[in-house]
Amino acid sequence: MTFRLNEDQLLIQETARDVAQEKIAPLAQGYDERSEFPWQSVKYLQELGFMAMMVDEDWGGSGLDTLSYSLAMEEVSKACASTGVTMSVNNSLYAYPVETFGTNDQKEKFLRPVISEKLGAFALSEPDAGSDPASMKTYAKKEGDEWVLNGSKMWITNGGAASYYVVFAVTDKEKGHHGISAFIVEKGDPGFEIGPPEKKLGIRASSTTPLSFDNCRIPIDRLLGSEGEGFKIAMKTLDGGRIGIASQALGIGKAALESAIKYSKERVAFGRQIGKFQGIQWMIANAAVELDAARELIWRAAMLKDAGKRYVKEAAMAKLYASEVAVRAADMCVQVHGGAGYSNDFPAQRYWRDSKITAIYEGTSEILRLVIGREVLGKF
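RE: above sequence
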């Protein structure tokens, strides 16, 4: 494949870089220290149309391709990983399934508002069903002209900030994963409660909460797609979401690399800048090589998606590699900074804390290796 950005993509990249560095980056450390949701940073992205980049213009979106989205995600996450994951969930995990599987009425009511005003969330994981969503216990039953949901969800990004949620629940226990359906739940629906925010190691400014459903009643037309189609909706959504998280990881890794380069040119030890020592040069060189390779994997997956081709394996590869590279680059950044890297006076520690989650959510590294293995081996 030839990776060459067109003029529109270059403009998106430049615009994202400018707003990220000039407006979002200066707020990132404060939001992180206070564990405060980055509403101002989100507002900047809403004004640019970046919170629904791939939504068709007919519904108020930007109508851009996946590669443009990846470019913007990298730049935003380089400035603030918490803002980056907020953007990723709204684009990939909420807007995509609603636009792809929703009715026109659902799109009018639940898609248009998240373009520039409200936020969406994706509720799949449960206390006992994370990497194994088919084991979920949240269930929904039809009563007259309503669906009644009972159960709980865990680790929901945008949980406390969203207005709308794509929620997955079992509608037929006898059918296994074919008995899972998807629903749109709105904040304020009777029986729906949002739990307290999680206290996290990293991405502290993002909103992560549990959700609970106690005889939560929603109109019958809130079913997303067809009954029993939920597992398919979830898997297709996660395939695209992994491109977004891979891009987030790349942004964190690039921020860590640039921070290490800057510090290695400024810090003097044994009479010269530490960047002149071979040991430091090799650490930085390794990170630079791996991050460039990660970008190639991400762009390949994005371009396959944009071409309408199968990209399950490629998205899994991109997310697996980019996330693990981000962790290594962030660790290198802390090491190059030495004791300073362990201090809040430098952003190295934030990159290290933020990087780790990218190897866990939207498919752990172990699950992604299973996905890739099955795709490579095929049926036999």
